[in-house]
Amino acid sequence: MPDLHRVELNWSGVNVVGLAKTILHFDGSTVPPPDMTAIRAAFATLQSALPVSTVVTFPGDGVTINDADGTLSGTWSFGSTPAPVSGSSTDTSAAGVGACVTWSTGAIVGTRRLRGRTFIVPLSTFAYDQNGTITPAQLTALGNFRAAMLALSPDLMIWHRPTTPGGTDGSSAAVNGSSVRDRVAYLGSRRS
Predict the structure, then answer these.
(1) Which of 10, 41, 74, 167 to pair with 84, CA 20 to 30 A apart?
(2) How many C-beta atoms lie closer than 10 Å to residue 74's C-beta?
(3) φ, ψ (nearest 5 deg) of residue 35
(4) Comparing C-alpha atoms, which of 192, 26, 10 is closest to residue 101?
C-alpha cells in the first residue's frame, strides 16, 4: 500500500467556528514532499471571495501515513512556511456556507466511486447570485482553484479510511477530475 503525505491547512476568522481544517493528501511515494508554495497559490485564487477576516494558514512540515491503516509512517518538511492567505472581501458573509469542490478518482471502493470534497467556507455574499447560486465569476475562480490543485506535484490523492477502527482495508487513488455544483454548500463539519 502506498504512503500519503498529509497536509493540514488551518482556517481562522470571525465567521470560522470551532476547529477548522482542510485536510489534503498527496502521493507519498515521491520526493520532494508537497509544494506548499503551489498549494498556497491555489488557495490564493480564492482570496477575493473570502471575507477579510478569514485566514488560511499553511504548514512547513507534516506527516506521512500508510493508506491501509492510517498509521504514521514518517514525516516531511517543505523547508519553509508560506505566508497565510487572507480574505480580501469586505462584504458580509454567513458562517457555515460557501462552495464545495468534489474531487473524483478512477477507483471503486465497495460499490462506489472514491471521491473527496474540499469545502471553501465561508464565502462573502458577493460570491452568490440573487437566487442563492454561485456567481459565474466565482465559478470561474473555483475552476482556477481546481486546475491549480490538479496541476500539483506530487499528485493530489483521496484517502478512504479503513472501514473499522484498527482495520487495514483503507485505500487511496489519485484525483483525475473535479467539479463544483452551482449552489451553496452548507458545512456542518470540517472533517474530511
Answers:
(1) 74
(2) 13
(3) -85, 100
(4) 192
Note the pLDDT of residue 190: 46
Q: C-alpha grid cell for residue 106?
A: 478512477
Three-point CA angle 28, 34, 38, nearest 5°: 155
For residue 126 the three cell numbers come to 458577493
Question: Grid coordinates standing for 70?
Answer: 492510517
pLDDT in tens, the chain (192 residues): 589 999 999 999 988 877 899 999 999 987 778 899 999 999 999 999 999 999 999 999 999 999 999 999 999 999 889 999 999 999 988 888 899 999 999 999 999 999 999 999 999 998 999 888 999 999 999 999 999 999 998 999 999 999 999 999 999 999 999 999 999 998 765 444
CA 160, CA 173: separation in Å to the nearest integer?
Answer: 9
Burial class (CB in 10 A: 0-12, 13-18, 19+), 95: middle
